[in-house]
Amino acid sequence: MRNRARVLAALAAGAVAGGAGLVLLRRRVGRLRFERGLAAVQLAVRGGMRYAGSAPRLFIAAGESRERLRNDLAMQTADDVTATLGAMKGVMVKLGQMASYVDDGLAPSVRRTLSRLQDSVPPMSANLAGDVIEEELGLRPERLFARFDPEPIAAASIGQVHRAITRDGRAVAVKVQYPGIAEMMAADLDNVSLLRRMLRVTAPSQDVDGLIAELRERVLEELDYRREAVNQQLLHDYYAGHPTISVPAIVGELSARRVITSELVTGARFADVLSWPQSERDLAGETLFRFVFRSLYEVHAFNGDPHPGNYLFHGGGKVTFLDFGMVKHFTDADLMPLMQMARHLCVDGLPAAFRASLEQAGFLVPGAPLRDDQIVDHLAVFYQLIRESRTVTVTGEYASAVVRRFFDVRSPVAQYARIPRSYVVLQRINLGLFALLGEMQATANWRAIAEEIWPFMQAPPSTPMGAAELPWLASRPGVAARLA
Length: 484
Prior knowledge:
Layout: H1 2-60, H2 63-88, H3 90-102, H4 108-114, H5 126-137, H6 141-144, E1 147-148, E2 154-155, E3 159-165, E4 171-177, H7 181-190, H8 192-202, H9 208-223, H10 225-239, E5 245-246, E6 259-263, H11 270-273, H12 278-299, E7 301-303, E8 311-315, E9 318-321, E10 327-329, H13 332-347, H14 351-361, H15 372-379, E11 392-393, H16 396-406, H17 428-440, E12 443-444, H18 446-453, H19 464-474, H20 479-483
Parallel strand pairs: 5-9
Antiparallel strand pairs: 1-3, 2-3, 3-4, 4-6, 7-10, 8-9, 11-12
């Protein structure tokens, strides 16, 4: 009886402590929400004052002078946004990253400024990074590794990356999560008005509620590096031996909830690739295309964070893919309507069957008062690269058209269109992949490449890269029998 009383007393004390802890956590999140909301308001006010102060000069100026003044103001605002979002990290950095590569309403110079958020936000101190490593892995980095570089090689939305050498001599990249970032992101996601204000500054043409919903859906997964390690190792194993696609292997014994260690890879960044010869950009674009759709149709998984900071380029079409914190996994049932849509529209040319597949997947309200040709016209832009077997250059104008159509609420189709929960993250293919291919002006017969990958066609190689894939494909479980 005495033991039972002790247990009950301990449980009661624990409940009180837990309740107090919950109150303190709520207060902290509330304070963070207020502080980060205030930072957003101050950013908006600075931008408004900047433009208000320049209004007389804008009114007097004309022609090229007025355009230069507008560009200067936009650049000053972009610098301010980049510095503010970089310091805030978390969700705020993700908004800036998205704006830097998918927003068609921003000038190229402004997008380049925001692109600094892709891998170079202000880092945390080496001491703080060491604290996180010690908490997660039990030792300070200088004891855990043979060598640990205190200066990060990249710093982004929820963590930063350090070079290190393991005790057995392997060169590795150690990604360390910012302490307190989970609370910051919770505060941001709870502060819908904050996100709306930030989005109006960084990406005024984007759908606020859709973006917020997507961020909320994936953020908890992304904060657990153990999940990311599983996703990354899955894709590393699948693409092992591929001629142009590589994913760094995970070092499991040096990874935990807030620390992830993987093979160190170096290479050129996306901004460097834009100055490469067009032939090299075409090869890089083909690899991006193959990676996205092979991962989708064959691994049944898709990396939902396709911003340029997640790629390293090596020439000859070789690309290393990084950061698998936002991976969506699909079932056969999820993928079947997607394959049917592509087949019915692009191969069979059956608008009614295409419509039926849209309705089956939940993209279109069944029985909507729309003609089949209206539906095809509205959605054709998303399939433009693969509707015909011909060489096509992806342009910035095309990528912008995809963005505009995605958020076009004026179309008669829009009020009956839906984005089912299972496919929210998949829509970033349209926004992310096409935006990157458009910046590279990548050229290929995308339809022929798609026919190689589509499970319902599995056509022979259409490019040298496709031919180089054959030995690798033959080594995949279940594929060798198909090729025989």
